[in-house]
Each structure stands twice: as structure tokens, then as C-alpha cells.
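Thread: quick sanity check before group meeting

JM: Hey all, I'm pulling together slides for Thursday and realized we never actually wrote out the predicted structure for the chain we discussed last week. Dropping the sequence here so it's in one place. If anyone has concerns about the input, flag it before I start.
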Amino acid sequence: MSVDAAMASLGLPAPDMLLFRPILLRELQALDLYNCARYRLTMTQTRQWIEAGRPQ
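JM (edit): ok, ran it. Output follows.
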């Protein structure tokens, strides 16, 4: 799911989306194998996402 699709699925008001997007992007950039459990992601899922170039 893209960042935009994920954000749209949250149903946040537009002003909140503007504040949330940079936080989400920062967290995605920090996501790695050592902290993927924080988001209940498997190491395999995270590795595949990283190897795919961290698509957004």
C-alpha cells in the first residue's frame, strides 16, 4: 500500500494529514530490520521492502 493510500484509509481531516505525513515518512525511513517488530512486521517483510527500494 502506498503512503497516500494508507493515509487516505485513516480518514484523518486534511489539517491532521498535513501534520501526520512528515511523521510517517520519517518513521518509514527509520524502519529497518532491528526495529520492525515495533510495527508488528516480520523481518522478511521488512527486508523485502528495503530491497525493493523502500517504495512509498
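AS: nice. The longest helix spans residues 14-30. The radius of gyration is 12 Å.
JM: adding both to the slides.
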